């Protein structure tokens, strides 16, 4: 049995080496999709030995925790590449969203250690903000704008100032076609659960709002959460359309269905405590993942037709680790797969002569005047389309003005009067 396991491990390692050293390694051979209005530069992202610490709250110290800092991520190493759809998976508390927030630069507190590179160059947060997008789990949109107006507003603020209005609108329409929102271009966004767009349509709008900024790297926090199977499939089809343009896409996923899980190309699997236990390609029908964990002595084989995502969560649980006497994080660090990942990270950490370091002459894509006009246009539409809200605000403003005016009537003249 051990010989069979070693043979399977060697075969998987050879396949991984071939896959990871494919021509899409740096995204240099990914061509611009036909018909793209605005070009973008495919970029890779690699990170090495990422550790993240936060201060322990006083409440926990009173409960007996002696440490001053709590470590949420432990020596996380991996890479995201153009044209590759990567999933971040783990149980609740594993740190998948924390890792994504650290890589995206959204963590303002705590201590971050490690190296992050963008196509071989050290990550600069101001530059990275301009070439990346982040789709939050909670969809936040202006309810009184239409779909196309929401996208135009985002484009006006985030596209470079040299892009004219005609090109801007053409790009917005192209993005709507990419995420399949063309039939809903004139529909009001509305309030979630009350009117307007459905949950699935709002998810696609959230993705489109980030996409009109023409990012090279997009992070998505649980894009299928709260959706039924059909809606989740529509959203993932949209995500796959974006990946096919050559962008780097990373998604956190919680308990995915078998169809959703197998739509991903690569996986970063984390256990509780912020440690990686798998980083690499899934393979056809998740074969690489299954063979990797089945090579561990004592791990039960997956049943035919069973969801690989559910199976890997079961066999790598804390209880299973205790039963098998295996630390899956240590098993991964001793595997050939980890060595392959380190090779890829080392290769991506070196600048390529064909890719120049991104720099921008200004901090923001648009000057102050353009930002002010865009915000004024958006608020004007919102107020005129919600007359009840505007009337109530006007009424309260008048009432409060009259009330304070009456209270303070001739107050200054009475103070100056000696009588």
From TrEMBL:
This protein's UniProt keywords: ATP-binding, Membrane, Nucleotide-binding, Repeat, Transmembrane, Transmembrane helix, Transport
MF (Gene Ontology): ABC-type transporter activity; ATP binding; ATP hydrolysis activity
Main subcellular localisation: membrane
GO cellular component, one term: plasma membrane
Entry's transmembrane regions: 394-412
Domain ABC transporter residues, every copy: 45-297
Topology of this chain in the membrane: Multi-pass membrane protein
Record flagged with keyword Coiled coil: no
Highest taxon listed in the record's lineage: Eukaryota
UniProt-listed InterPro entries: AAA+_ATPase, ABC2_TM, ABC_transporter-like_ATP-bd, ABCG_PDR_2, P-loop_NTPase
Compartments, as annotated in UniProt: Membrane
Family of the protein in this entry: Belongs to the ABC transporter superfamily. ABCG family. PDR (TC 3.A.1.205) subfamily.
Name by which UniProt lists this protein: ABC transporter domain-containing protein
Native organism: Aegilops tauschii subsp. strangulata
């Amino acid at each position: 049995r051990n010989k069979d396991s070693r043979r399977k491990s060697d075969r998987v390692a050879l396949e991984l080496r071939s896959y990871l050293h494919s021509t899409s390694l740096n995204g240099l051979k990914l061509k611009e999709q036909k018909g793209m209005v605005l070009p973008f530069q495919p970029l890779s992202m690699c990170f090495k030995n990422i550790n993240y610490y936060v201060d322990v709250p006083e409440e926990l110290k009173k409960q007996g925790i002696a440490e001053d800092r709590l470590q949420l991520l432990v020596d996380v190493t991996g890479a995201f590449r153009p044209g590759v759809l990567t999933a971040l998976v783990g149980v609740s508390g594993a740190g998948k969203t924390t890792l994504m927030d650290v890589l995206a630069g959204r963590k303002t507190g705590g201590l971050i250690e490690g190296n992050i590179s963008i196509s071989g160059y050290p990550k600069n947060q101001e530059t990275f903000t301009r070439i990346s997008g982040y789709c939050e789990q909670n969809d936040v949109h202006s309810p009184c704008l239409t779909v196309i107006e929401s996208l135009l507003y985002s484009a006006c603020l985030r596209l470079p100032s040299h892009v004219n209005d005609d090109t801007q609108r053409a790009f917005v329409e192209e993005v709507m076609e990419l995420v399949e929102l063309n039939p809903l271009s004139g529909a009001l966004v509305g309030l979630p659960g009350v009117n307007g767009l459905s949950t699935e349509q709002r998810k696609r709008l959230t993705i489109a709002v980030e996409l009109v900024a023409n990012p090279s790297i997009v992070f998505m926090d649980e894009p299928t959460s709260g959706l039924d199977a059909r809606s989740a499939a529509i959203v993932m089809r949209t995500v796959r359309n974006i990946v096919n343009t050559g962008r780097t896409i990373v998604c956190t996923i919680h308990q995915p269905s078998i169809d959703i899980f197998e739509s991903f190309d690569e996986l970063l699997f984390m256990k509780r405590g912020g440690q990686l236990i798998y980083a690499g390609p899934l393979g056809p029908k998740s074969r690489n993942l299954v063979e990797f964990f089945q090579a561990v002595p004592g791990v039960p084989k997956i049943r035919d037709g069973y969801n690989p995502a559910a199976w890997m969560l079961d066999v790598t649980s804390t209880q299973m680790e205790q039963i098998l006497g295996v630390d899956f994080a240590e098993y991964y660090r001793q595997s050939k797969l980890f060595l392959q990942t380190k090779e890829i990270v080392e290769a991506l950490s070196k600048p390529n002569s064909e890719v120049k370091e991104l720099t921008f002459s200004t901090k923001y894509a648009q000057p102050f005047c353009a930002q002010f006009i865009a915000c004024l246009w958006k608020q004007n539409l919102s107020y005129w389309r919600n007359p009840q809200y505007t009337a109530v605000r006007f009424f309260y403003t008048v009432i409060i003005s009259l009330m304070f005016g009456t209270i303070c009537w001739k107050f200054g003249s009475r103070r100056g009067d000696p009588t």
